[in-house]
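Posted in: Structural Biology > Protein-Ligand Complexes

Title: Requesting predicted complex, phenylalanine in pocket

I'd be grateful if someone could produce the 3D structure tokens for the following input. Sequence and ligand are given below.
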Amino acid sequence: MSLEPFEEQRESWGTRGGFVLAAVGSAVGLGNLWRFPYELYDHGGGAFLIPYIIAVFVIGVPMLILEFSLGHFTQRAAPDAFARGHKRFEFIGWWTTLLGFVIISFYAVILAYCFSFMSLSIKGILAGGELPWAGEGLEGVKKAEEFFFHTYLGHKEEFALGSIRWNVFWPLVITWVVMYLCIFRGVRLVGKIVWLTVPLPWLMLLILTVRGLTLEGSIQGLAYYLNPTWSELAKATTWRFAFSQAFFSLSLAFGGVMITYASFLHRRSDLNNNAAIIAIADFGTSFVAGLAVFATLGGMAFVTQQAGHPVAVENVAKGGPSLAFVAFPYALAQLPYSAWFSFVFFFALVTLGIDSGFSITESVLASVVDKTGWKRSIVLPVMSVIGLGTGIIYITEGGLNWLWLIGDFIDGTWGLAFLGLAECMVLGWLWKIDLLRRHANDRSDWRLGKWWDYLIRICIPITLCALFVWSLFGDFTKEGGFLRDGVGDWILPNCVGMSIMILVPLVGILVSFAKGRSRGQGWGNALYELPIRGRLWGVISLVLAVVSALVVAILFKMAVDGQSEKTLLWLALPPAIAAVIISNYMVGTRNGSTAKASWFARWAGLLATADIGGFIALSLIYLTEQKDVAEQVVHAQEQLSGISYLILSAVFLLIIGGLAWCFYRALSTSNEKNDTHYPDEVGLEEH
Ligand code: PHE
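-- Reply #1 --
Done. Output follows.
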């Protein structure tokens, strides 16, 4: 029996560069320039970088490699890729794909805002520099707010939708048309387009950064960006936002983008090093984007002070998604050549976002095409119209409320990080993950050790599960409740948001039942016909895991009711650890043995990692309960503190050093690789 994947003639990227750029293009998007700066500002400034860097490098890179190797190995988009392991897992693929669809429907709306603001800036340039949102002092801030929320969006506070805003509708149509045009000819063209859409925003960003940093007062702005508020690290939400932001920014765990993109990669291509390059490039872009934004806000604060109507950074950067559409436009309007620079800013946003947007569309498209065998040329237009139609919800008068709500849920307890957890657990425990590692190692510039298996199977699930339980606790103990308010009435919007998060995996399951194109025998199924070993030990460890789960569940319930049981908690740990060790031993391949570990052992391992996560979460809950974590107080920050300089240099060192190392590895192995032949290299195009 061969465990090699199917070989087939699949579309492919032209070159390695085409693929890397497309993946970078997907990763580097609105998430970097629109989301990252405000997430960081809202969650502790420089302190946020700690969870974020952990999320990107300890969890993001290994998971990127996981998605790459899965897509590359199976040569399929997410649902089919999972189904090739076992039909039963297909729904995970649909879950990520459908969540991707939820996201693209609002992502396109934000892009539409960017298009509008870009064209307004052009009009401003033509009108000799007059911008419609420009105003002075605090009045000016109000005017910018007024412009975005009322003049442009016609925003109403209620969740009732109201009428459609046609001035946003047309930009939305443009967004979908542009995305359509970029991908309708297939990935080879995408591989060319990204040579434009990736470097161009970087150039724009460079312009904004240099200009920002040379403004007087910029350092003060950077103080808001980098001076850390350490107490934020004691909050579950800070960590959750950091992890969600990392997943969002790396295009991981939803949409199945990275799986799909890797499936179009030709058979020899490196995977590991590409993943590292993409992650570093994405992180670097976010960080620099933050510098550009806050330096400019600092410059704005200085100018307004000089003019006698001071507006401090915290007056505008109240955080939140409107940073890019209120605070920044206002700040730019205070400075010379404002219309030009607003154009640069919104043009950067458009070019950043468009390739991320179409990457999701492409991935959903590939999922449908792989499953049904329908024609791309028909599915794509239909999908675009559905996406556009869904987007209409968000461009009504009450639409912004829904947009933020869905965004909150994507970031929330049940969102991205949760899906990442499911992905790692299923692939780590229920699959033969070492197969994927070998596949990746066979063709990569550097090799993963066995530690990678443990990371995917044990460490990442524990971390994500701890985070999940910790923030679930927050949802449960929220004053008045999460789904019901103090008086017991349902909070409708939250119920809708929650239903979507529940509905998506359910629909995923349904779709996965639908009969797809015949794909021959999955290699995974072959795996499941192997002789089984370790039933007895499997059962033992399952019992241990269940015991531990019960303890954790009971203590969680008690914690929600306000009681803590520190000593009892320790009961949960030993059985869980024992179960993980036993299961891990059973699941790991042993020399020469082709037998597979029993399902008991696999499920026990999965549950036991969740138990340990629960244990950690409960410990954190007990630890933080007494200390009332103070709300972040933003002090007037005058100077960049010493520690911020340290952070700044450490981050730059990380980015530059990391990239240098990756390129060095790529160069030093490229020569050797030319004469290597891979077992699964059959009937492929040569380049
Ligand atoms: N990574 C993109 C961004 O940062 C968003 C995205 C998420 C794109 C998932 C594709 C898939 O904006």
